[in-house]
Amino acid sequence: MARSSTPHPISPSPRSGEGGRRSSTSFPLSTKWSGGEGERRSGISFPLSTKWSGGEGERRSGISFPLSTKWRGGQGVRSFRRRLLAWYQRAARDLPWRRTRDPYRVLVSEFMLQQTQVSRVAEYYPRFLERFPDLGALARARPKAVREAWDGLGYYARARNLHALARQVAGRSVAGDGVAKLPEDPEELVKLPGVGPYTAGAVAAFAYEKSVPAVDTNVARVIRRVFFGSRERGAVPSAAGRKRGSHPQVLLPAPRSREIWQLARALVPKDGKRAWRFNQAIMELGALICVARKPKCPECPVRPVCRTGKWTTPTIFRASPPPSQSAPARRQSTPRGSAAS
């Protein structure tokens, strides 16, 4: 095979290049290239693989991964999971909603954690549950009582939606077996008041141990940085990256939300208990290590397989210019489970 000085737009398809023709993305180097020559020549290990269990990753996600088809037979994905889960086992915070599989209690925690720091939720969570111990009790409560129990958490539309959800589910139970119970299927959960794709996935995964993704701000940031490379302002190549001149090549087109969800779906283990731990672990990584402004790359357990952390300096994002030199600041909400908590 003739050598080339530019990245070869080879498709993840190891035979015909069909993946490249079906996608508008030009894939940056493939390790299938002459039996892995692409990986050896580029000096980087490509995360994710369509070789993963005979192409299972691509089939489960519904996308053609713009990555290698022969990253040691899918060891890259396994390495990411293994490193992440091992770190979570030793570094996970002891949070009260992680000690339960009760759907109602998981739901309350997820509503509270929206736009609110973990430390504040930990204060309000037990008091709210003491006053409204189950869906039935919440459904029977007066709106004023729910508002009082929520007072101090802010974003009071969450309390109204949670109350409306409880009444809706309790109303259905009257026509059924008389027990107010949340659905297990994310497609049914998302139909309830105040429940979006993330909350639906979180309840299904954390209460019912379903093998489904739960992609919040933290998870999306981890997936984007690990598997696509950071395009956020201030990212600079490390000395190794500058020496190789390869940092620009490892950045893939910025993923859309749909692509991040599809990739997350492919990453979640099939076993329910492992899926629970994986979803908790990737959220925890985004909350404690892979934070928005000052990621702690030297402490990151998945840095060896991360497109961003492996090829950039530890202080990835430089300070923003003074307010007088930048656009007017916009109010930013606190991500779920942020490190500031």
Compose a concise summary of this entry.
The chain has 341 residues and is an all-alpha fold. The protein is built from 15 helices and no strands. The protein has helices at 18-22, 37-42, 56-61, 75-91, 103-113, 118-131, 135-140, 143-150, 157-175, 186-189, 197-206, 217-228, 239-244, 257-267, 272-288.
Distinctive features:
Endonuclease III, domain 1; disordered N terminus; mainly alpha; 341 residues
* Structural class computed from helices and strand pairing: mainly alpha
Q: What is the residue-averaged pLDDT?
A: 74
Main CATH class of the largest domain: Mainly Alpha
Residue share in helix = 40-55%
Strand count, sense and closure of the main sheet?
none
According to CATH, the fold-level topology of the largest domain is Endonuclease Iii, domain 2
| H/I helix tally | 15
CATH superfamily of the largest domain: Helix-hairpin-Helix base-excision DNA repair enzymes (C-terminal)
How do the helices and strands follow one another from N- to C-terminus? HHHHHHHHHHHHHHH
Strand content: under 5%
